[in-house]
Amino acid sequence: MSQNRFQNLYPPMPSIFMAPTEIMYDAKHLFLFSHTQGVKKPYKEVIDICWGDAHSGGTKPLTFVRQVIAVCIYPELLQETTIAPDVKERARRLLRECPGGSVGKYCVCGIPFVQDGVCEFISKRDGGVPSYPEDIFICSGSQNALMFVLKLLVHGKGLAQTGVLTPIPCYPTFVMGLTELGAAMVPYYLCEDDGWCLHVEELRRALATSRSHCNPRILYVINPGNPTGHVQSRESIEEVIRFAAEEELFIFADEVYQDMMYAEGSQFVSYKKVLFEMGPQYSNTVELASFHSVSKGIMGECGLRCGYVELVNLDPSVKQSVTSAFNTERNTAVIGQIALNIMVDPPKPGDPSYPTFSQVSLHETVEALPGTSFQAGSGGIYAYLRLDLPQKALLQAKEEGTDPDLMYCSRLLEEEGVCLVVGKEHGQQEGTYHIRICIGTTSTRLKEVLRRLKSFHLRFLNEFS
Amino acid sequence: MSRDRTHILPCCQGAVTQRCCQPALWKMTENCFMHHRTKVLTIDTMNPNVKKVEYAVRGPIVQRAVQIEKELKAGAKKPFSEVIRANIGDAHAMGQRPITFFRQVLALCSYPELLEGNEFPEDAKERARRILQACGGGSIGAYSASQGIECVRQDVARYIQERDGGIPCNPDNIYLSTGASDAIVTILKLLVCGEGRNRTGVMIPIPQYPLYSAALADLGAVQIEYYLDEENCWSLDVSELRRALVAAQQHCSPRALCIINPGNPTGQVQSRQCIEDVIRFAAEEHLFLMADEVYQDNVYAEGCEFHSFKKVLFEMGPEYSDTVELVSFHSTSKCYMGECGFRGGYMEVINMDPDVKVQLTKLVSVRLCPPVPGQALLDVVVNPPRPGEPSFNTYIKERTSTLQVLAEKAWLTEEVFNTVPGITCNPVQGAMYSFPRISLPERAIQQAKEKGQAPDMFYCMKLLEETGICLVPGSGFGQREGTYHFRMTILPPTDKLKIVLEKVKQFHQSFTQQYS
């Protein structure tokens, strides 16, 4: 079939990015292939710490979650004596809420019972700020939810093309989504030297320059950040909201890591809460979409594919259209919705399952290696290290016709069997190089990763000194 | 435009910027003048394609049904005690029992500690272990590869190969998806491009499953309609394909042809000859074939048989099998499984250009991966108990019984509807629906038009209000001008179905009388 019959899906991505993950994955597969062919390596297994995927990283799923799911799938298990009463009670309740009493049924916008639970969770989290079921849209993961809301807003070409203010660094899947929908990405740089925080002047600069080639309407923030792990202060959030209000931007607050705070004294405060505490001139007007998911947090159920978006201050004229559009496609797996229900309404102290449903602590002790710098975040699931690569290494990369951070990561994979994400996939300031490590894994595994990384890194510095 | 801000009360001054100094935008509230900020998302600034999308299966009639259910719950008195949702092909909602083996394997995958106990048979445990081994960290909670778990794709390929009498199937051509709908929309995204006269046209049957029209509206593609032949049991006539294509070539660039076999809403099962004709047509006219085969196990009528497009294609020889681009779709939502809520599905792409395949692989990665429980379910659907395995007897019994009951209900529906003057129902050869034609009195049609409703919508709304039965009007699926239909599922349990059929019969008679 000739290429021209198909849409040119991926016009050249902005030059600060490169084709996501393919390259490392190709490298990984090539390597794995050679491994199976009996090629000797100084290590037994490749450790892939690219994805923010706790289970892949060895974290065990939570028993309560999995027991409830198993019982809902196979209600005969209600007879099992080994299953705790609170599990059975929750499963019975959930099954009652599925017409036909089966998890095999379509569930359009979401099981109402689950939606209600989400509202209660949000309201409690935000100190009583109300949340309404008709504003909650349950989707197959936060990516799905993001694409749904983006699609409502994105259209137009040329100067009318919808622009989306996007943080740099940002995880590549989001940018691919923008390209798919035909949105213009408008990058704004987070300040590395300032702990990756967001400076409103930078937002202003980005916005001003974008107006010459597109119609910026959306401001995308990730809090806690991916890959940076930076958690925004309340003041910063207020500034962003004020900016969005002034410039008439729809805020997309990606808050999927809100339950993964690890630094002492750090606290997550939601965009919605801050918005509502800024008084009616903001809380009645600024449009906000906030996203959450079961993929992260202590449950880490990435594979179940469930998340939600809360749409705040939608214009009444669009509510019907939004609901109709949602009805057309959105069928979120019931199993995922069960996990969501548990996430927003977990076992409480006193419940039989409460003790095992305990906090999984993140091991974030990524010490700075010589020749790297690390702006430690306070939340999220990644460590984002900056590599200060020696001049010789940069030259070598140029000779090889590759990017310095890709060269670094490919060698790391080859020599130590560690697969990371190359900084270029997130976008970075010209002349800077980074690597992203998923730290949401067992402490044993993380220690091993850091050991191998350190060993490689010191050798690398030595080779190119 | 006055820049004078003295009229602005102090509490609002902080929010005012240059753009805001227009008195017309000020809105008075209780305590002060509030700035009426223009919303970013209004009906005018919304993506115009999104506005065009309608999805009849969950449209206004269903919304009214939901309302009525709430009213009943609140104690309202009605001539019926429950709403019967015969609008959507959701088997479990209608009481169809799941296949025990599938649920056992899924329970084991969800909570692997159960592998240690004695509650589950060995063959279920073996499959669960195999699936879990292929999952990151041994958990269905880990992301899978975007194309789907490799061993599942291999199992799907093996299933297809067996189904199609040994014609090879490459697992690399299998893409797992979130139900078949997701895969269908993904392919359409790849196909739709161009502007004006070069805009992609996609041929769809009338009547059709409205996902297609919704997706085409959403993508801004041109919908090219070809009519199925109601007089001939909803069969597909290539001359009609040709007519539609030629007409369309005037204003768009036709690129794809969608077939639903067995059909939705019509239930017809295409003959082998017909499938060959369609393939030949697609080859001649250089069209990309999309074969929606999600009802492939739902075949009831005597003399009817499911023929997969792929099998027929390959049996037509290399002139076709080497060249015709085909995608076929399947899912775990229908057939005898009926597991709509798991969102399991796949597509097989045949003869796709390698460069385009790269793009497809990238495209599916944007949503990360399909739900892993759905992938696990698909695996066990294509890899069910074999003769000799402990669960085989129960599995076969459940499967046969489910399909048999559906066949009985299909026949019953056709029979009852054909006894009603003014209703004619084609044989329900397959799938899960009847799509009878109803004749409506002129007065009813008039009243509907006055109300701004399609006549069959008017009919279905009345039916809902008077009997609590929720059907979907034919206008939601498309039909020939001047004809009216409704779609009713055959899923309600047999005794309930009998009651529903009787009620519809009575309603039709009284409706006809009322408006004659």
UniProtKB/TrEMBL annotation, chain A:
Pfam families: Aminotran_1_2 (PF00155). The keyword tRNA processing does not apply. Residues 83-453 form the Aminotransferase class I/classII large domain. Its EC number is 2.6.1.2. GO terms for molecular function: L-alanine:2-oxoglutarate aminotransferase activity; pyridoxal phosphate binding. CDD domains: AAT_like. This is alanine transaminase. It comes from Scleropages formosus. The lineage of its organism: Eukaryota, Metazoa, Chordata, Craniata, Vertebrata.
UniProtKB/TrEMBL annotation, chain B:
One of its GO terms (cellular component) is cytoplasm. Its cofactor is pyridoxal 5'-phosphate. Keywords: Aminotransferase, Pyridoxal phosphate, Transferase. One of its GO terms (biological process) is L-alanine catabolic process. InterPro entries: ALAT1/2-like, Aminotransferase_I/II_large, PyrdxlP-dep_Trfase, PyrdxlP-dep_Trfase_major, PyrdxlP-dep_Trfase_small. It is an enzyme of class 2 (transferase). Signal peptide: none annotated. It catalyses: L-alanine + 2-oxoglutarate = pyruvate + L-glutamate. Pathway: Amino-acid degradation; L-alanine degradation via transaminase pathway; pyruvate from L-alanine: step 1/1. The keyword Lipid metabolism does not apply. Residues 108-503 form the Aminotransferase class I/classII large domain. Its EC number is 2.6.1.2. One of its GO terms (molecular function) is pyridoxal phosphate binding. The keyword Nucleus does not apply. Homodimer. Belongs to the class-I pyridoxal-phosphate-dependent aminotransferase family. Alanine aminotransferase subfamily. This is alanine transaminase. It comes from Scleropages formosus.
